[in-house]
Structure of MYND-type domain-containing protein:
Amino acid sequence: MSANINPLANPKGANKVCELCEKPAYIQCTKCFVTFYCGREHQNDDWVAIHKKVCQLLIPVRTPVPYYTLEVEREHHCSQILQRQTQLMEISQTVAEKKLFEKRHKESLPAALLSLRSAMDVFGTSAIQLVPAYLLLAEANIGLGNLSPAEQYLSWAEWTVVRTPECSQTVCQKLHRCMGRLFIVKGNLEEALFHLANDIYYASEEYGQDSIVTCGGYFLMADIFSKQGKMDIVNSLYKEVAKTWHSHLSTLLERHIQNTITPEESFDEAQQAEADQMLRSMLEPVKALEFGKRALLSSRLVPDCNLTEPVQRLLQLAEEDLNAANESWPELPPCSSAHTEHQLSMKVSQR
Ligand SMILES: [Zn+2]
Ligand SMILES: [Zn+2]
């Protein structure tokens, strides 16, 4: 999968640098021949994180433009390349988002980096479209505890937003959410609450009060209040979040059964991971075990109850969560199983 190269043998002005750390490259990917690394470790990191998904897509984007005599051919080539770069940007962004929700921060970094580079290729180096990539890089670094690069990316994002008066509410919302996360980690909870209030304001303006985007802000606020020991507020916020997700997922399920779901409405991988993360946190393992055991007893009392199996599955999941010693999340269940667990929790809690 890799071949050695000698940086000294490169033509003048064409130094190859590592895809991840930008130090001189000594090996190259032998599947695409257009991606270079300082060594095996960075090649492996990149392969696992994003490269295996985009290796072939990179070939036309990074291959020098052939000589075209006709302008129409040149234009056609440019529009094809632009299309590929946009595709690369979208794929790497979704992959980085998904890994972030799964708390695989180290793996999300190479994907986020590629999404920034592709966004720069498509939109230039100071466009507002770079902000989502800056925020992904900031979040990955926050997750890894590297606060100084996180602050650097956030300040570039903030600067870009400030000098773009027509900046959308979605971008403002994402910026405030990320700032909220940074201040939570720094322990400045008041500042974090200020940014999350802004996050919720922009989210409800753009998506509505009871959208799943808005409730993401409430979810983080609950985290702060739980650090402050204000459990009454935490419980009521979690109740709101659970209500929103329940109604969202019920609608989706209904549309799915009726076969009227549109591609925009179905979850992408990142949204599945987000839903999974939130539902698991709210079904905090110890509590989930307790009510799961109660639910199992109740379900056995009801003749022909088809709940026993899902309840057993929930118990198994909760036990797995309790036993998980490291920070990495187990393989994502499909969206439908998150739905089952959640519906179950709603049903049981209504008793
Ligand atoms: Zn490197
Ligand atoms: Zn490759």
